Fold this protein.
Amino acid sequence: MKEGGNFIGALKDNFSKIKKITREISSLSENIGTSNKDENRFISSQISSLKVSLREANDKTLEILDKIYLAKPLNSNAQKTPLKKDLKKEVSHKHKSSSKILRLLRKKIPELERKTIKRLRKKGKETKEEKVKEASKYVWIANKVFSNFSMSIVDNRIFRNLKRDLIKANLQFIPSNYISVILFTTLLSLIGGFFTFLFFLFFNISPMLPIIIPVNENLLGRFLKVFWVLFAIPIGTFLMMYFYPWLEKKSIENIIDQELPFATIHMSAIAGSMIDPSKIFSIIILITIMTSFYFSDFDLNTLTGLITLEPKEQTINTYVQDNGDIQTYFCPRDDCETALTSFIDSAEQSIDCALFDIGLESVQNKLLEKEKTIPVRIVTDNDYLKKFNHSFVKADKWGLMHNKFCIIDKNKISTGSMNPTNNGAHKNNNNLLLISSKVLASNYQDEFDEMWNGTFKKGNKILNPSISINNIDIKNYFCPEDKCADRVKEELKKAERSIYFMTFSFTHEGIANILLMKNLDNLTINGVMETRQISEYSQFERLNNNGIEVFKDGNKNNMHHKVFIIDEKTVITGSFNPTGGGDSNNDENILIIEDEEIAGLFINEFNYVQEEAVKTE
């Protein structure tokens, strides 16, 4: 088959996707009869979104089949990897004393899962992220002085294209911060220009000694000659700062425009020579090195042993610095209802909320009260629109708008797993976070504006994913555009000592694979799952059968957390359940918080939930 291998692989992947979706639909269908009315609506909505994905997968199957036709396959001398591997040798070599685990693995894990875990374990040994914190006092002072004014003019047409230019120029600023820096720099240049003006008013610079000499002319005439310095320096500084992102963006575009045609021609020529594609980049590197040697006196022998064709990946994250604080509540032990209503009541300028289900009467009344004096905008899930249907409320059209966040005055947010319902606040296990941060609020504001303008289940990737709030490092993502499941897996791979998790619904095989891989490395891994969401298609039995201690929750209502705690210092929370639907079909948000104090609070909640689960067994 001509290129048949690629299409067959795609076909297999698509069939695998169809199988997963079918299983998840079957699992959700079993829970409809055992759940209350609100949960049945949630499950029905989830099934509807999965049906859409199933239809898309079926259509894709037909497209792939149309592309497959017979032809003579290319010969390949590449060494094929043996299909069968001796899992026992690998496990016993690293864990000779773990005979019990070995028996469990040999008995319970199918051959395909064995290979998957081995592959994931191999890939898991990757270079850790190196965080580069650039806590610029200059930017901090600029924000302190001009932050409020910058926020008021950021939407002015003069700065309309600034946000896009900052992104394309790869500058680590949000528009309001950069405007503050422009204004602060201009202010400093104005002061500098004033002193420069005074200097040249009374002195001249000579090319001969003495270099600085007094002015010997009429003061008024001298003033008319140098007064322009007062304006030229600050105006020039402002224009330079204003156009810098645009100039940087154009520079990057020009480099791409210049190099792309040559790269395309180069790649086409090599590809046309029928060389194994895996060797193409090796050839390009070799050609580049040899060309540099031809035009220099460099000795080829000095490179012996220094060239590798498999570069190590190293990610560098720059954290945007911000001021603020984080308050954490755990329902129903804490009074989450009062905390949320007080938070909404504190609004003085605006309220924007994306809430899956608005059932609490106190929250409804507070929003109606505030709407009389300040702008209020609400986005909710289509299935729950009837609970709070007003002129300032919009709903999605398909899938789930599963967020639970509010933005107050564009500088504070509430988020977590709690729906503002009676069950969410007073019966289910939930978490509620109230965070003061203009940068984080800007992230949530961009996501809200997309949904308010009709863009659901897609949108632009997050502008500032990494934020440091008073030395508390936070990563923020929105699904599906930021691939939340991949972000969770990235964090789980970093675990060195322990992973604790509390999940309402857990069906994602990829995330479970990371836990299985880490379990083989003898990490402490414990979890609690919502009992009514456990079925043959969830990951509960699979994790339990392979040596990971997982409990069915003991809450007679719902254990509604979506939490992972890594090494007792990093917390993943938000609205995202580790499921296929949560990753691909819903509007979700997650926070990854690195702080031992906050992690300690979540550990206490985990111990409480686990103790409640143990009592019921």
Remarks:
- The first strand starts at residue 130 and ends at 133.
- The mean pLDDT is 80.
